[in-house]
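TASK: fixed-backbone design
INPUT:
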């Protein structure tokens, strides 16, 4: 009985730590944890995967995306239409692959992908973050990539709207 309680406790503690990280000075949250890493790229992967044995979340926050970009640990694919990027802007370093082309694009060879989209073709083991205007189309792109065998795929849930809002605050 005591052993069973201990095992239940062991399964809950990592989730509690992830959901309510308390940092020196009484601050809490994952975003503070990201900001306190001082761009230490070794922590980025841990932040994406969490501390739980549950399936990892595919959603990435603004802070996590900034960290990934600064460490060059992810390929960021913007699935909006080219006119949207021209009109609204884009996340620096992202590659534009419109949603309707994602399935075919991820099956091209590296040279064709680079020629057509102006960026390096992600490998199936690369960390890929999909983004769009508000996070809906990027979720569809994530599902497409997963169906093609890509393992480490994420969705920037806030999309361009969240990115531009946060960049204006900085």
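OUTPUT:
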């Amino acid at each position: 009985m005591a052993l069973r309680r201990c095992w239940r406790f062991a399964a809950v503690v990592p989730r509690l730590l992830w959901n309510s990280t308390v940092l020196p000075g009484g601050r809490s949250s994952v975003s503070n944890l990201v900001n306190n890493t001082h761009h230490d790229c070794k922590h980025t992967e841990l932040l994406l995967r969490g501390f739980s044995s549950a399936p990892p979340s595919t959603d990435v926050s603004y802070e996590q995306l900034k960290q990934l970009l600064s460490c060059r640990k992810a390929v960021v694919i913007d699935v909006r239409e080219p006119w949207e990027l021209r009109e609204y802007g884009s996340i620096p370093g992202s590659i534009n692959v419109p949603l309707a082309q994602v399935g075919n694009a991820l099956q091209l060879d590296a040279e064709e992908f680079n020629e057509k989209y102006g960026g390096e073709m992600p490998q199936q083991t690369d960390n890929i973050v999909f983004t769009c205007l508000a996070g809906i189309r990027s979720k569809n792109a994530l599902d497409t990539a997963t169906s093609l065998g890509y393992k480490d795929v994420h969705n920037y849930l806030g999309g361009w709207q969240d990115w531009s809002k946060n960049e204006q605050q900085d």
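COMMENT: Strands lie at 59-60, 75-78, 95-96, 128-131, 153-156.
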